[in-house]
Write a structure and sequence with these properties.
With 237 residues, this protein is an alpha/beta fold. The chain folds into two domains: 9-111, BirA Bifunctional Protein, domain 2 (2-Layer Sandwich); 122-232, Anticodon-binding domain (Rossmann fold). It has helices at residues 9-27, 83-88, 101-110, 132-144, 162-171, 182-187, 195-201, 208-215, 224-231, and strands at 52-62, 68-79, 95-99, 122-124, 149-151, 176-179, 189-194, 216-220. It is globular.
Length: 237
């Protein structure tokens, strides 16, 4: 991007945001074969205030006449900081996307995919901006092992607090939460909180320290995926 020679400060700010997004995507293992940056992409200039994106299915299928077809774009969205202010006169940064449900359902039908039963992902709690890449690395490692995972990003106005993140995990029926702060990162360890076990033991153990000892486990970072796989659906005791 530096080779573009842009001098406009707003343009340079936008390029810097794209470079940060690129770094986070790369941390998840998404390279140029899956993500393309297109400076010609335009979506609602009176609405969006930052990066915009579209998700396109590359899956092909044959129509009734035997011609090869693609569904194309199935999702789109971006940053729209001004919407809430227009409606409620308060400034709230926001990013969102909409899914083309009809297109997605048609794609699943045409490719004969089965609708999967919804399950809660492992939630990677977010505490430190300096660890943003590592949070994405953890999510990538879990997904590659076939374990659904999500990095928490709903931390606007205090929502980064652990209590808020655990509430979010409960609402999404997340069985496990990965906790990683700067101290743990320096030691090469990760804490895993077992919400399924916590719900099972609620009311049975009154001592808070004993309760935390039972539901929270520190594991070496390199053993995290194996530990989560072992405890994903382990019998509750």
């Amino acid at each position: 991007m530096d080779g573009l020679g842009l001098q406009n400060p707003i343009a340079r700010e936008g390029i810097a945001e794209l470079e940060k997004i690129d770094a986070l995507l790369s941390a998840q293992g998404f390279g140029s074969e899956r993500v393309m940056f297109d400076l010609s992409l335009v979506r609602g200039m009176a609405y969006y205030t930052g990066p915009v994106f579209e998700v396109e299915s590359l899956q092909t299928f044959k129509d009734a006449k035997g011609r090869e077809r693609k569904v194309g774009s199935i999702c789109g969205g971006g940053r729209y900081d001004g919407l809430v202010e227009q409606l409620l006169n308060i400034q709230v940064p926001a990013t969102g996307a909409s899914i083309g449900v009809d297109r997605l359902a048609e794609l699943l039908r045409l490719t004969q995919q089965q609708y999967a039963e919804a399950t809660g992902p492992v939630l990677i709690a977010y505490f430190d901006d300096e660890l943003a890449g590592e949070y994405q690395n953890i999510a990538r490692d879990l997904r590659r092992a076939g374990i659904p995972a999500e990095v928490y990003y709903g931390f606007y106005k205090g929502f980064r607090k652990l209590k808020k993140q655990l509430k979010y995990a409960d609402e999404k029926n997340c069985p496990l939460v990965v906790l990683l702060g700067s101290d743990e990162a320096a030691q090469g360890i990760v804490t895993v909180k077992n919400l399924r076990l916590g719900a099972h033991l609620a009311g049975q153990i009154e001592d808070k320290r004993e309760f935390n000892r039972r539901v929270q486990t520190q594991v070496p970072r390199q053993e995290l995926v194996a530990f989560i796989r072992e405890n994903w659906n382990a019998p509750l005791e």
